[in-house]
C-alpha cells in the first residue's frame, strides 16, 4: 500500500559525514559501518583505510537510499535478509543503487517502477500493482538543508572542540577536518574541485583550512 519514491535522488550533490547521515536517516553509525564492512551499502566517498577519522562521506543519493532502507526496516518491518534479497533483485533489474528507482511496498513485498513502461512491477515476478506514492526525497532535502546552514561568523574560520573529530581542527560549524582539505589540495584538487566534493563549504572555508594547515606546519 505504500511507496518510497527515490527516482529524483541524483538532483543534489552533497558530502555528509556519518554523524549527519545518522541524524537525517535515523540509522546508527554502528549500522552504517557494519553495512559498509559487509558490502551491503558503501558510501560514495571513502578512504581505503576505514579506521581513519572521517573516512566515510555520503552523497545525497546515498542518503536517499539509506532513508529508503531505514523506512523499509522500521515502518514496514522488512528484515535485513529480505533487504539483501531486494538489493540483489534491484541489481538483476539493472539498478546499481537503492536510489535509482522508485520503490513500493505492499504486504511486505517490494515493487519498483519499470522505467521503460512506467508500470509498477514486483521485483520478484514482474506482477503489476497499482499503489499510492509517498516520497522520501523531500524529507531528506529538508533535513540536509537544516544541516548545511551555518552562522555567517563561522564561514571562513576554523575551530577545535574536545568532542568534535577527536579534538582535530575543523572548518567552523562543520565536522570536516582541515587536514582532509589539505589532503585534497596536495592531491592536485583545485579550490573549485574541493567545493564540488564539499558543496556545503565556501571558497573562504577552503582557504581558511589551507592557511591553518600551513601555519600549523611552520609552528611544528
Structure characterization notes:
The chain has two domains: 2-144, Multidrug-efflux Transporter Regulator, Chain: A, Domain 2 (Orthogonal Bundle), CATH 1.10.1660.10; 150-219, Arc Repressor Mutant, subunit A, CATH 1.10.10. The chain has helices spanning 18-25, 29-38, 60-74, 80-92, 137-148, 178-186, 191-197, 203-219; strands at 2-5, 45-46, 56-57, 103-106, 109-113, 120-122, 134-135, 158-159, 170-171. The chain is elongated and about 65 Å long. The chain has 220 residues and is α+β, with helices and mostly antiparallel strands. Helices cover 41% and strands 12% of the residues.
Shape: elongated
Helix content: 40-55%
| Largest sheet, spatial ordering of strands | 6-5-4-1-7
Terminus-to-terminus distance: 62 Å
What's the total helix number? 8
SSE class: alpha+beta
Summed up, the domain count is 2
CATH architecture descriptor text of the largest domain: Orthogonal Bundle
Structural Rg: 20 Å
* H-E string: EHHEEHHEEEEHEEHHH
Share of β-strand residues: 5-15%
Please summarize the sheet with the most strands. 5 strands, mixed
Which parts are unreliable, with pLDDT below 50 for 5 consecutive residues or more? Answer: 1-13, 130-134
Kindly identify the CATH topology of the largest domain: Multidrug-efflux Transporter Regulator, Chain: A, Domain 2
Round the mean pLDDT to the nearest integer and report it. 81
**Record field, number of beta strands:** 9
What is the class of the largest domain in the CATH system?
Mainly Alpha
Amino acid at each position: 500500500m505504500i511507496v518510497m519514491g527515490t527516482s529524483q535522488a541524483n538532483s543534489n550533490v552533497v558530502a555528509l559525514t556519518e554523524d549527519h547521515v545518522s541524524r537525517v536517516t535515523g540509522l546508527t553509525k554502528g549500522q552504517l559501518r557494519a553495512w559498509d564492512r559487509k558490502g551491503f551499502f558503501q558510501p560514495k566517498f571513502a578512504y581505503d583505510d576505514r579506521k581513519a577519522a572521517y573516512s566515510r562521506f555520503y552523497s545525497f543519493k546515498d542518503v536517499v537510499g539509506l532513508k529508503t532502507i531505514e523506512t523499509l526496516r522500521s515502518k514496514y518491518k522488512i528484515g535485513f535478509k529480505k533487504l539483501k534479497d531486494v538489493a540483489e533483485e534491484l541489481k538483476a533489474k539493472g539498478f546499481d543503487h537503492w536510489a535509482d528507482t522508485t520503490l513500493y511496498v505492499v504486504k511486505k513485498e517490494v515493487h519498483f517502477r519499470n522505467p521503460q513502461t512506467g508500470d509498477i512491477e514486483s521485483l520478484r515476478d514482474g506482477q503489476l500493482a497499482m499503489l499510492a506514492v509517498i516520497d522520501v526525497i523531500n524529507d531528506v532535502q529538508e533535513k540536509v538543508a537544516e544541516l548545511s546552514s551555518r552562522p555567517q561568523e563561522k564561514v571562513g574560520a576554523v575551530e577545535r572542540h574536545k568532542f568534535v573529530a577527536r579534538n582535530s581542527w575543523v572548518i567552523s560549524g562543520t565536522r570536516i577536518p582541515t587536514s582532509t582539505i589539505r589532503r585534497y589540495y596536495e592531491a592536485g584538487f583545485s579550490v573549485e574541485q574541493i567545493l564540488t566534493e564539499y558543496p556545503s563549504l565556501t571558497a573562504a572555508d577552503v582557504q581558511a583550512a589551507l592557511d591553518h594547515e600551513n601555519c600549523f606546519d611552520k609552528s611544528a
